[in-house]
Amino acid sequence: MKIFEARRMQTIPAYLFADLDRKKREAMARGVDVISFTIGDPDLPTPDAIVRAGQEAMGDPRNHRYPAYAGSDEFRAQAAAWMKKRFGVDLDAQGEIVALIGSKEGIAHLPLAMIDPGDLSLCPEPGYPVYAVATRLAGGEVHYLPLRAKNGFLPDLDAVEPGLASRAKMLWINYPNNPTAALADRGFLEKAVAFCRKHEILLCSDCAYSEIVLDGQGANSVLQIEGAKEVAIEFHSLSKSYNMTGWRVGFAAGSATAVGALSTLKSNLDSGVFDAVQQAGIAAMRQWPENLKGLLSTYQSRRDLLVEGLSGLGFEPPSPSATFYVWMPVPGGDDLEFAAKLIERAGVLVTPGSGFGPSGRGYVRLTLTLAEDRIAKAIERMRKAGIDGSIGGSGGSP
Ligand SMILES: *Cc1c(COP(=O)(O)O)cnc(C)c1O
Protein backbone atom coordinates (compact mmCIF):
# COMPACT_ATOMS: atom_id res chain seq x y z
CA MET A 1 0.00 0.00 0.00
CA LYS A 2 1.40 3.35 -1.01
CA ILE A 3 -0.05 6.85 -1.21
CA PHE A 4 1.00 9.48 -3.71
CA GLU A 5 0.93 13.24 -3.60
CA ALA A 6 -0.64 15.22 -6.41
CA ARG A 7 1.37 15.74 -9.58
CA ARG A 8 1.06 19.48 -9.12
CA MET A 9 3.35 19.17 -6.10
CA GLN A 10 6.14 18.59 -8.62
CA THR A 11 5.64 22.15 -9.85
CA ILE A 12 6.65 23.43 -6.42
CA PRO A 13 10.39 23.94 -6.09
CA ALA A 14 12.18 22.76 -2.99
CA TYR A 15 12.30 25.48 -0.38
CA LEU A 16 14.60 28.21 -1.66
CA PHE A 17 16.97 28.14 1.26
CA ALA A 18 17.05 24.42 2.08
CA ASP A 19 20.63 23.92 0.92
CA LEU A 20 21.83 26.99 2.79
CA ASP A 21 20.04 25.83 5.90
CA ARG A 22 22.01 22.61 5.74
CA LYS A 23 25.32 24.44 5.47
CA LYS A 24 24.29 26.61 8.38
CA ARG A 25 23.45 23.57 10.50
CA GLU A 26 26.79 21.97 9.64
CA ALA A 27 28.63 25.12 10.74
CA MET A 28 26.60 25.26 13.94
CA ALA A 29 27.39 21.62 14.63
CA ARG A 30 31.06 22.60 14.45
CA GLY A 31 30.35 25.14 17.20
CA VAL A 32 30.39 28.22 14.94
CA ASP A 33 28.26 31.17 16.05
CA VAL A 34 26.72 31.73 12.62
CA ILE A 35 25.90 35.30 11.66
CA SER A 36 22.97 35.20 9.27
CA PHE A 37 22.17 37.86 6.70
CA THR A 38 19.43 35.72 5.18
CA ILE A 39 16.39 36.51 7.32
CA GLY A 40 13.73 38.62 5.58
CA ASP A 41 11.95 39.19 8.85
CA PRO A 42 12.33 42.33 11.00
CA ASP A 43 14.20 41.53 14.24
CA LEU A 44 12.63 44.42 16.18
CA PRO A 45 9.44 43.95 18.22
CA THR A 46 5.99 45.21 17.24
CA PRO A 47 5.54 48.71 18.75
CA ASP A 48 3.92 48.64 22.24
CA ALA A 49 0.76 50.54 21.38
CA ILE A 50 -0.04 48.02 18.64
CA VAL A 51 0.59 45.06 20.95
CA ARG A 52 -1.65 46.62 23.62
CA ALA A 53 -4.47 47.19 21.12
CA GLY A 54 -4.21 43.53 20.11
CA GLN A 55 -4.15 42.35 23.73
CA GLU A 56 -7.21 44.36 24.63
CA ALA A 57 -9.11 43.17 21.58
CA MET A 58 -8.18 39.59 22.37
CA GLY A 59 -9.98 39.83 25.72
CA ASP A 60 -13.24 40.93 24.12
CA PRO A 61 -15.57 37.93 23.55
CA ARG A 62 -17.06 39.63 20.49
CA ASN A 63 -13.75 38.94 18.80
CA HIS A 64 -13.79 35.24 19.65
CA ARG A 65 -16.23 34.41 16.86
CA TYR A 66 -15.68 34.08 13.12
CA PRO A 67 -14.59 37.36 11.60
CA ALA A 68 -16.28 38.85 8.53
CA TYR A 69 -14.72 37.13 5.49
CA ALA A 70 -13.45 40.23 3.73
CA GLY A 71 -12.35 42.00 6.91
CA SER A 72 -14.31 44.15 9.37
CA ASP A 73 -15.88 47.37 8.12
CA GLU A 74 -13.61 49.22 10.54
CA PHE A 75 -10.44 47.57 9.24
CA ARG A 76 -11.30 48.18 5.62
CA ALA A 77 -12.32 51.77 6.33
CA GLN A 78 -8.97 52.33 8.06
CA ALA A 79 -7.09 50.74 5.15
CA ALA A 80 -8.96 53.04 2.74
CA ALA A 81 -8.19 56.06 4.95
CA TRP A 82 -4.51 55.09 5.02
CA MET A 83 -4.37 54.72 1.23
CA LYS A 84 -5.91 58.18 0.94
CA LYS A 85 -3.54 59.77 3.45
CA ARG A 86 -0.45 57.98 2.17
CA PHE A 87 -1.01 57.99 -1.59
CA GLY A 88 -3.98 60.29 -2.17
CA VAL A 89 -5.89 57.33 -3.64
CA ASP A 90 -9.69 57.08 -3.23
CA LEU A 91 -11.02 53.58 -2.66
CA ASP A 92 -14.41 52.13 -1.82
CA ALA A 93 -13.74 50.26 1.42
CA GLN A 94 -16.51 47.75 0.67
CA GLY A 95 -15.82 46.85 -2.94
CA GLU A 96 -12.19 47.70 -3.49
CA ILE A 97 -10.45 46.43 -0.33
CA VAL A 98 -10.15 42.95 1.16
CA ALA A 99 -8.28 42.03 4.35
CA LEU A 100 -5.63 39.33 3.98
CA ILE A 101 -3.96 36.86 6.32
CA GLY A 102 -0.69 38.57 5.44
CA SER A 103 -0.20 39.76 1.88
CA LYS A 104 1.45 36.45 0.89
CA GLU A 105 -1.90 34.77 1.39
CA GLY A 106 -3.58 37.09 -1.11
CA ILE A 107 -0.70 36.87 -3.57
CA ALA A 108 -0.83 33.08 -3.43
CA HIS A 109 -4.62 32.91 -3.87
CA LEU A 110 -5.14 35.54 -6.56
CA PRO A 111 -4.04 33.35 -9.51
CA LEU A 112 -6.65 30.73 -8.51
CA ALA A 113 -9.26 33.44 -8.96
CA MET A 114 -7.88 34.91 -12.20
CA ILE A 115 -5.99 32.25 -14.16
CA ASP A 116 -7.41 29.53 -16.41
CA PRO A 117 -5.31 26.58 -17.59
CA GLY A 118 -2.90 27.77 -20.27
CA ASP A 119 -3.09 31.43 -19.25
CA LEU A 120 0.17 33.21 -18.76
CA SER A 121 1.49 35.15 -15.82
CA LEU A 122 4.41 37.53 -16.36
CA CYS A 123 6.69 37.29 -13.32
CA PRO A 124 9.90 39.11 -12.45
CA GLU A 125 13.15 37.25 -11.88
CA PRO A 126 15.05 37.52 -9.65
CA GLY A 127 11.92 37.80 -7.54
CA TYR A 128 9.69 36.68 -4.71
CA PRO A 129 8.93 33.08 -5.69
CA VAL A 130 5.25 33.09 -4.73
CA TYR A 131 3.98 34.80 -7.92
CA ALA A 132 5.23 32.00 -10.17
CA VAL A 133 4.49 29.10 -7.82
CA ALA A 134 0.89 30.26 -7.27
CA THR A 135 0.41 30.70 -11.02
CA ARG A 136 1.52 27.12 -11.68
CA LEU A 137 -0.62 25.72 -8.88
CA ALA A 138 -3.58 27.41 -10.55
CA GLY A 139 -2.74 25.61 -13.82
CA GLY A 140 -1.23 28.67 -15.49
CA GLU A 141 2.13 29.11 -17.15
CA VAL A 142 4.88 31.52 -16.21
CA HIS A 143 6.85 33.78 -18.50
CA TYR A 144 9.74 35.38 -16.64
CA LEU A 145 10.78 38.98 -17.15
CA PRO A 146 14.45 39.44 -16.20
CA LEU A 147 15.36 42.35 -13.93
CA ARG A 148 18.77 43.67 -14.95
CA ALA A 149 21.00 46.28 -13.41
CA LYS A 150 21.28 48.18 -16.70
CA ASN A 151 17.49 48.72 -16.65
CA GLY A 152 17.43 49.75 -12.99
CA PHE A 153 16.02 46.30 -12.18
CA LEU A 154 12.77 47.18 -13.96
CA PRO A 155 11.29 44.69 -16.47
CA ASP A 156 11.56 45.72 -20.12
CA LEU A 157 7.90 45.68 -21.13
CA ASP A 158 8.72 46.76 -24.70
CA ALA A 159 10.60 43.49 -25.11
CA VAL A 160 7.56 41.31 -24.34
CA GLU A 161 6.47 39.73 -27.62
CA PRO A 162 2.90 40.54 -28.70
CA GLY A 163 1.99 36.85 -28.76
CA LEU A 164 2.99 36.50 -25.13
CA ALA A 165 1.35 39.75 -24.11
CA SER A 166 -1.95 38.65 -25.61
CA ARG A 167 -1.88 35.33 -23.71
CA ALA A 168 -0.94 37.01 -20.43
CA LYS A 169 -3.57 37.47 -17.74
CA MET A 170 -1.36 38.86 -14.96
CA LEU A 171 1.76 41.02 -14.69
CA TRP A 172 3.52 40.98 -11.31
CA ILE A 173 5.62 43.90 -10.18
CA ASN A 174 7.21 44.49 -6.77
CA TYR A 175 8.64 47.91 -5.88
CA PRO A 176 10.45 48.63 -3.65
CA ASN A 177 11.88 45.34 -4.83
CA ASN A 178 12.90 42.18 -3.03
CA PRO A 179 15.68 41.14 -3.64
CA THR A 180 17.27 43.95 -5.72
CA ALA A 181 16.18 46.87 -3.46
CA ALA A 182 15.23 48.85 -6.59
CA LEU A 183 12.54 51.54 -6.55
CA ALA A 184 10.21 52.23 -9.48
CA ASP A 185 9.65 55.78 -10.63
CA ARG A 186 6.26 57.06 -11.66
CA GLY A 187 7.19 56.77 -15.34
CA PHE A 188 7.60 53.01 -15.04
CA LEU A 189 4.27 52.63 -13.25
CA GLU A 190 2.57 54.66 -16.00
CA LYS A 191 4.14 52.39 -18.58
CA ALA A 192 3.00 49.27 -16.72
CA VAL A 193 -0.57 50.56 -16.48
CA ALA A 194 -0.63 51.44 -20.20
CA PHE A 195 0.79 47.99 -21.10
CA CYS A 196 -1.84 46.23 -18.99
CA ARG A 197 -4.70 48.35 -20.33
CA LYS A 198 -3.61 47.67 -23.88
CA HIS A 199 -3.35 43.91 -23.44
CA GLU A 200 -6.16 43.48 -20.88
CA ILE A 201 -3.84 42.17 -18.20
CA LEU A 202 -4.35 42.43 -14.45
CA LEU A 203 -1.46 44.42 -13.01
CA CYS A 204 -0.54 42.91 -9.64
CA SER A 205 1.61 45.22 -7.55
CA ASP A 206 3.30 43.84 -4.44
CA CYS A 207 3.91 46.82 -2.17
CA ALA A 208 5.20 45.01 0.93
CA TYR A 209 8.10 47.49 1.28
CA SER A 210 6.30 50.74 0.40
CA GLU A 211 7.20 52.25 3.79
CA ILE A 212 10.76 50.96 4.00
CA VAL A 213 12.34 53.77 2.02
CA LEU A 214 15.63 54.94 3.47
CA ASP A 215 16.56 57.91 1.29
CA GLY A 216 14.59 60.24 -0.87
CA GLN A 217 10.90 60.27 -1.43
CA GLY A 218 8.53 57.49 -0.52
CA ALA A 219 7.53 54.76 -2.91
CA ASN A 220 4.57 55.25 -5.23
CA SER A 221 1.36 53.26 -5.41
CA VAL A 222 0.37 52.04 -8.83
CA LEU A 223 -3.17 53.13 -7.96
CA GLN A 224 -1.99 56.74 -8.17
CA ILE A 225 -1.75 56.34 -11.93
CA GLU A 226 -4.75 57.49 -13.94
CA GLY A 227 -6.82 54.56 -15.16
CA ALA A 228 -5.00 52.06 -12.92
CA LYS A 229 -7.96 51.06 -10.81
CA GLU A 230 -9.63 49.24 -13.70
CA VAL A 231 -6.62 46.99 -14.29
CA ALA A 232 -4.60 46.90 -11.08
CA ILE A 233 -4.67 45.25 -7.68
CA GLU A 234 -2.10 46.20 -5.07
CA PHE A 235 -0.97 44.19 -2.08
CA HIS A 236 -0.15 45.99 1.15
CA SER A 237 1.33 44.37 4.21
CA LEU A 238 1.65 45.46 7.81
CA SER A 239 4.51 43.00 8.29
CA LYS A 240 7.53 45.09 7.34
CA SER A 241 6.17 48.57 8.16
CA TYR A 242 5.21 47.77 11.76
CA ASN A 243 7.34 44.68 12.57
CA MET A 244 4.21 42.51 12.48
CA THR A 245 5.28 39.50 10.40
CA GLY A 246 3.96 37.05 13.01
CA TRP A 247 0.51 38.61 13.26
CA ARG A 248 -0.46 37.85 9.64
CA VAL A 249 -2.33 40.88 8.42
CA GLY A 250 -2.40 42.90 5.22
CA PHE A 251 -4.87 43.89 2.53
CA ALA A 252 -5.40 44.05 -1.22
CA ALA A 253 -6.82 47.15 -2.88
CA GLY A 254 -7.83 48.17 -6.38
CA SER A 255 -9.87 46.68 -9.24
CA ALA A 256 -13.33 45.76 -7.95
CA THR A 257 -13.32 42.75 -10.28
CA ALA A 258 -10.05 41.36 -8.93
CA VAL A 259 -10.79 42.24 -5.31
CA GLY A 260 -14.27 40.72 -5.66
CA ALA A 261 -12.93 37.51 -7.23
CA LEU A 262 -10.28 37.17 -4.53
CA SER A 263 -12.87 37.76 -1.77
CA THR A 264 -15.25 35.18 -3.20
CA LEU A 265 -12.45 32.65 -3.53
CA LYS A 266 -11.21 33.33 -0.01
CA SER A 267 -14.68 33.03 1.51
CA ASN A 268 -14.58 29.43 0.30
CA LEU A 269 -11.06 28.67 1.52
CA ASP A 270 -10.44 30.55 4.75
CA SER A 271 -12.46 32.41 7.32
CA GLY A 272 -10.66 35.71 7.49
CA VAL A 273 -8.25 37.49 9.81
CA PHE A 274 -8.76 37.16 13.60
CA ASP A 275 -10.66 40.33 14.61
CA ALA A 276 -8.20 41.08 17.42
CA VAL A 277 -5.40 41.07 14.86
CA GLN A 278 -7.42 43.39 12.62
CA GLN A 279 -7.81 45.78 15.56
CA ALA A 280 -4.07 45.71 16.16
CA GLY A 281 -3.74 46.45 12.45
CA ILE A 282 -6.06 49.44 12.77
CA ALA A 283 -3.93 50.75 15.67
CA ALA A 284 -0.84 50.25 13.50
CA MET A 285 -2.18 52.19 10.52
CA ARG A 286 -3.27 54.98 12.87
CA GLN A 287 0.32 55.25 14.14
CA TRP A 288 1.65 55.87 10.68
CA PRO A 289 3.97 57.68 9.97
CA GLU A 290 5.28 58.17 13.54
CA ASN A 291 6.16 54.46 13.71
CA LEU A 292 8.65 54.83 10.88
CA LYS A 293 11.13 57.31 12.36
CA GLY A 294 13.00 54.95 14.66
CA LEU A 295 12.60 52.01 12.32
CA LEU A 296 14.07 53.71 9.28
CA SER A 297 16.96 55.28 11.17
CA THR A 298 17.83 51.84 12.54
CA TYR A 299 17.95 50.37 9.04
CA GLN A 300 19.90 53.38 7.78
CA SER A 301 22.69 52.99 10.36
CA ARG A 302 22.88 49.26 9.76
CA ARG A 303 23.00 49.80 6.01
CA ASP A 304 25.78 52.36 6.31
CA LEU A 305 27.78 50.09 8.61
CA LEU A 306 27.41 47.09 6.31
CA VAL A 307 28.04 48.99 3.07
CA GLU A 308 31.10 50.75 4.50
CA GLY A 309 32.43 47.49 5.94
CA LEU A 310 32.03 45.60 2.68
CA SER A 311 33.51 48.49 0.67
CA GLY A 312 36.47 48.48 3.05
CA LEU A 313 37.04 44.85 2.10
CA GLY A 314 37.09 45.78 -1.58
CA PHE A 315 33.54 44.75 -2.50
CA GLU A 316 31.25 47.03 -4.46
CA PRO A 317 27.93 46.93 -2.63
CA PRO A 318 25.31 49.40 -3.89
CA SER A 319 23.80 51.33 -0.97
CA PRO A 320 20.08 50.55 -1.07
CA SER A 321 17.58 53.43 -0.91
CA ALA A 322 14.72 51.11 -0.01
CA THR A 323 13.88 47.74 1.59
CA PHE A 324 16.22 46.10 4.09
CA TYR A 325 18.29 44.27 1.50
CA VAL A 326 21.75 44.84 0.09
CA TRP A 327 21.99 43.26 -3.40
CA MET A 328 25.68 42.89 -4.00
CA PRO A 329 27.59 41.64 -7.06
CA VAL A 330 30.23 39.11 -6.04
CA PRO A 331 33.78 39.04 -7.38
CA GLY A 332 34.15 36.37 -10.05
CA GLY A 333 30.38 36.11 -10.48
CA ASP A 334 29.76 32.73 -8.83
CA ASP A 335 27.27 33.53 -6.06
CA LEU A 336 26.86 29.92 -4.92
CA GLU A 337 30.58 29.41 -4.53
CA PHE A 338 30.93 32.74 -2.76
CA ALA A 339 28.13 31.99 -0.29
CA ALA A 340 29.56 28.55 0.42
CA LYS A 341 33.01 30.03 1.07
CA LEU A 342 31.53 32.67 3.36
CA ILE A 343 29.73 30.20 5.60
CA GLU A 344 32.58 27.70 5.65
CA ARG A 345 35.41 30.14 6.35
CA ALA A 346 33.75 33.01 8.19
CA GLY A 347 30.53 31.53 9.60
CA VAL A 348 28.60 34.23 7.73
CA LEU A 349 25.42 33.29 5.89
CA VAL A 350 24.13 35.18 2.86
CA THR A 351 21.56 34.25 0.21
CA PRO A 352 22.93 33.43 -3.27
CA GLY A 353 21.09 35.53 -5.82
CA SER A 354 20.54 32.65 -8.24
CA GLY A 355 18.05 31.25 -5.72
CA PHE A 356 15.72 34.07 -6.85
CA GLY A 357 16.07 33.29 -10.55
CA PRO A 358 18.78 32.98 -13.22
CA SER A 359 19.26 36.76 -13.51
CA GLY A 360 20.19 36.77 -9.83
CA ARG A 361 23.36 34.85 -10.65
CA GLY A 362 26.46 36.76 -9.61
CA TYR A 363 24.72 38.52 -6.73
CA VAL A 364 24.16 37.81 -3.07
CA ARG A 365 21.42 39.29 -0.89
CA LEU A 366 22.25 40.49 2.60
CA THR A 367 19.49 41.58 5.00
CA LEU A 368 19.67 44.42 7.51
CA THR A 369 17.61 42.60 10.12
CA LEU A 370 20.43 42.07 12.59
CA ALA A 371 22.07 44.28 15.21
CA GLU A 372 25.06 46.50 14.47
CA ASP A 373 27.45 44.53 16.67
CA ARG A 374 26.64 41.41 14.63
CA ILE A 375 27.21 43.28 11.37
CA ALA A 376 30.56 44.58 12.64
CA LYS A 377 31.54 41.10 13.79
CA ALA A 378 30.70 39.61 10.40
CA ILE A 379 32.88 42.16 8.62
CA GLU A 380 35.72 41.48 11.04
CA ARG A 381 35.45 37.73 10.48
CA MET A 382 35.53 38.19 6.72
CA ARG A 383 38.62 40.35 7.05
CA LYS A 384 40.36 37.73 9.18
CA ALA A 385 39.40 34.95 6.78
CA GLY A 386 40.90 36.91 3.88
CA ILE A 387 37.56 37.15 2.08
CA ASP A 388 37.71 40.30 0.04
CA GLY A 389 36.43 41.86 -3.14
CA SER A 390 39.27 40.87 -5.42
CA ILE A 391 38.51 38.35 -8.13
CA GLY A 392 39.55 34.90 -7.05
CA GLY A 393 41.10 36.61 -4.07
CA SER A 394 38.39 35.60 -1.67
CA GLY A 395 40.67 32.90 -0.44
CA GLY A 396 43.91 33.88 1.11
CA SER A 397 44.09 30.87 3.39
CA PRO A 398 47.51 30.56 5.03
C1 LIG B 1 7.68 39.88 3.09
C2 LIG B 1 7.13 39.92 1.70
C3 LIG B 1 5.76 39.73 1.41
C4 LIG B 1 4.71 39.22 2.33
O1 LIG B 1 4.58 39.60 3.56
P1 LIG B 1 3.35 39.18 4.45
O2 LIG B 1 3.96 38.99 5.78
O3 LIG B 1 2.72 37.94 3.93
O4 LIG B 1 2.40 40.34 4.38
C5 LIG B 1 5.32 39.89 0.12
N1 LIG B 1 6.16 40.19 -0.85
C6 LIG B 1 7.47 40.35 -0.65
C7 LIG B 1 8.34 40.68 -1.79
C8 LIG B 1 8.00 40.21 0.63
O5 LIG B 1 9.32 40.31 0.80
Describe the protein in words.
- Helix 2 runs antiparallel to helix 9 (275-287), helix 3 runs parallel beside helix 9 (275-287) and helix 10 (292-312) runs parallel beside helix 12.
- The model is unreliable at 394-398 (pLDDT under 50).
- Helices cover 38% and strands 14% of the residues.
- It folds into two domains: 7-45 and 291-384, Alpha-Beta Complex (Aspartate Aminotransferase, domain 1); 48-287, Aspartate Aminotransferase, domain 2 (3-Layer(aba) Sandwich), CATH 3.40.640.
- It is globular and about 60 Å long.
- It is built from twelve helices and twelve strands.
- The strands form three sheets. A seven-stranded mixed sheet has the order 2-8-7-6-5-3-4, sandwiched between helices. A three-stranded antiparallel sheet has the order 9-12-11. It has a two-stranded parallel ribbon with strand order 1-10.
- It is an alpha/beta fold and 398 residues long.
- Pyridoxal-5'-phosphate (PLP) is lined by residues 40, 102-104, 128, 174, 178, 206, 208, 237, 239-240, 245, 250.
- The site of pyridoxal-5'-phosphate has 14 residues, from helix 4.
